[in-house]
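Notes to self after the call with IL:
- keep both proteins in one doc
- input above output, always
- annotate only the second one for now

Protein 1:
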Amino acid sequence: AQHKIDDIELVFLNFHHLLNCYRPHQARQILVEAMEDQARRKNRMIQSIEQAFQRVREIAQEATRELEARDDSPITNDGEQYTTSGKEGDERKITHPVEGLSNTRVVLLSERMR
């Protein structure tokens, strides 16, 4: 009977040893999967930001085209900033550089921001 107990104990110790040998591999795999998941999430986030940036760029270019088509457009290509008055005391000026249009600045007036 003692011989069988010793055999079972040896099997148990070998099994325990094999489990402990597998743990570093398992830990590496878990880390690899976590890092791959993190990379996928970051790539999706980057794509989302790039799409939003592209939409903003298109909107800004469309707004610039519309403003250039108007005669009273407050746009300058020489870097100057123009301002026009709305109601008395209601004058606000926001200068925003539009990407892709060298030195072009669009001035948004308070009347157009409402």
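Protein 2 (the one to annotate):
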Amino acid sequence: GGGAFLIPYVLFLVIAGMPLFYMELALGQYNREGAATVWKICPVFKGVGYTVIIIALYVGFYYNVIIAWSLYYLYSSFTHELPWMKCGHPWNNENCTNPNIFNASSLSNGTKYSKIKLTPAAQFYERGVLNLHESQGIHDLGLPHWKLTLCLVVVVFILYFSLWKGVKTS
């Protein structure tokens, strides 16, 4: 299971993660420096500051994409019937199965229904939103889809205008 991962995760979190995080916060606040310039007191650790900035950049990109997907789902939900509730849409294939037909969580051969991922909701996400069926693999990324790109642009504009004037304190 996934529980075996928790042991090294907690171990490294306690030994390295939290002490380094608190040390960087304390040094940054005491010296009034940012993540990259606070390490000028010990140039050997200068890469730690740049790594923190790069990780924050990657996490920011990742979360913006998730917010764009949420915005796309919000836009898609403004219909009479939600598009991920039943089969029969252009993104569904012949293997789309309505989960309400089955009364059990397992099929007759013992396979869990959730493992075969043929629900309309899973096909809406994988085939309707991400268009995974059009790609041959990780080497074939394809072109950006205009609806998702538009949602991402809207998210970037919302973030820009939220942070434009900076944080005001009362």
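Annotation: Helices lie at 3-31, 46-76, 113-116, 120-129, 146-163. The mean pLDDT is 85.
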